[in-house]
Amino acid sequence: QVQPVESGGGLVQAGGSLRLSCAASDRTFSAYTVGWFRQSPGKEREFLGDISWNGGSVYYADSVKGRFTITRDNSKNTVYLQMNSLKPEDTAVYYCAARQPRRLEYDYWGQGTQVTVSS
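Below the sequence we write its predicted structure tokens.
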């Protein structure tokens, strides 16, 4: 069973950058589509984007397009979310999740990592 683990969250000033990582010990992780999500208090979970198993297809939500970049290194069983030009409204708990390429639902979720952007 794939168990993603996020890391890299923290406190950053507005305009700054952070890179989040999503890693799994199971090598089958490299065969999954991986998505990034976030949720802030009182708001619904927001889908940010996803990356196909080989990195050949990447999708971004309009809210982060041009500022966030999703990449993966399958040799390290890790997917990254590079976040630039951060804004206070980007403050949230960020989650990664994995799904089989032909499924629409994400089956495996990480525990989340907090990102706080100060103004």
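The chain is about 0% helix and 50% strand.
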